[in-house]
């Protein structure tokens, strides 16, 4: 593991310890509502502080964008942090949530860590060095079509602007595959595509911190990540498709009929 990835792992594990500690007394956690169905708790903030202080100690000049504290200016290296992806699950005691940390250098993702503290599973990747679950190399599946495929997704629940298009995509993909799962943490959904637990994934309206790390994991595991129209602007658009190299274009084909002037990528 390269030294930068080692720091990201240290930060993710430190955040994971905070998250696990609070999970023993969920009832006592203080929660605020950012907007409808968008919650932030003292756990999100405490985990984020832990990550930022670990990164800052090692790389004081790097820039950071973190979900809860926003932009911290710095040089051309930018860390993209979601301290707790799957907050709604977490607050319900539903064990599907993760810490997500990515590093981008001049627009290119170079380091990815997604850590699931409830299962103690650590997914990590460094550009050009492959993707790993703990110390085991992981790869996307080689499925050649939608038949028999298991997909992950995120169902819109805050912003319903594209709900009709989304449910059209979902209906078509349910009919054509072995099933669609909505686990509730986009970071882990991508990690599961990277590990071959899911054959593909799509979601509309994600933020960069939800899946920057996940996107590099999938790519380093041999998969493809694009925006909803099959292009490269996935981090900007947040409308995203991921899958194995032989499956991905079938996902693009299935969602294409639902693109419109407001939902192009
Ligand atoms: C959410 C999760 C969820 C996705 C949402 C995200 P959060 O992140 O990734 O799976 O559907 O769009 O906002 O708010 O729990 O960090
Ligand atoms: Ca998130
Ligand atoms: Ca979050």
TrEMBL record:
It catalyses: a myo-inositol phosphate + H2O = myo-inositol + phosphate. Its EC number is 3.1.3.25. It comes from the Bacteria. InterPro entries: IMPase, Inositol_monoP_metal-BS, Inositol_monophosphatase-like, Inositol_monophosphatase_CS, Inositol_monophosphatase_SuhB. CDD domains: IMPase. Pfam families: Inositol_P (PF00459). Its cofactor is Mg(2+). Keywords: Hydrolase, Magnesium, Metal-binding, Transcription, Transcription antitermination, Transcription regulation. GO terms for biological process: inositol metabolic process; phosphatidylinositol phosphate biosynthetic process; signal transduction; transcription antitermination. Mg(2+) binds at residues 67, 82, 84-85, 210. GO terms for molecular function: inositol monophosphate 1-phosphatase activity; metal ion binding. Belongs to the inositol monophosphatase superfamily. This is Inositol-1-monophosphatase. It comes from Solemya velum gill symbiont.
């Amino acid at each position: 593991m390269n030294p930068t990835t080692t720091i990201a792992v240290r930060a993710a594990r430190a955040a994971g310890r905070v998250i696990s500690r609070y999970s023993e007394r969920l009832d006592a956690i203080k929660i605020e509502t950012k907007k409808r169905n968008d919650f932030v708790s003292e756990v999100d903030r405490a985990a984020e502080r832990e990550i930022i202080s670990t990164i800052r100690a090692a790389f004081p000049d790097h820039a950071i964008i973190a979900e809860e504290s926003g932009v911290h200016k710095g040089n051309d290296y930018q860390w993209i942090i979601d301290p707790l992806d799957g907050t709604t699950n977490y607050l319900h005691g539903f064990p599907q949530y993760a810490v997500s940390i990515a590093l981008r250098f001049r627009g290119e993702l170079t380091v990815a860590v997604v850590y699931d503290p409830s299962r103690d599973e650590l997914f990590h990747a460094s550009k050009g060095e492959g993707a790993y679950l703990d110390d085991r190399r992981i790869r996307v599946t080689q499925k050649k079509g939608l038949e028999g495929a298991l997909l992950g997704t995120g169902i819109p629940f805050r912003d319903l602007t594209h709900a009709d298009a989304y449910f059209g995509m979902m209906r078509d993909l349910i009919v054509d595959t072995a099933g669609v799962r909505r686990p509730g943490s986009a970071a882990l959904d991508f990690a599961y595509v990277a590990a071959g637990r899911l054959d593909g994934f799509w979601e509309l309206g994600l933020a960069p911190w939800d899946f920057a790390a996940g996107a590099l994991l999938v790519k380093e595991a041999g998969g493809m990540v694009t925006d909803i129209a099959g292009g490269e602007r996935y981090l900007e658009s947040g409308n995203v498709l991921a899958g194995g190299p032989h499956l991905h274009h079938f996902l693009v084909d299935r969602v294409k009929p639902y693109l419109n002037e407001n939902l192009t990528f």
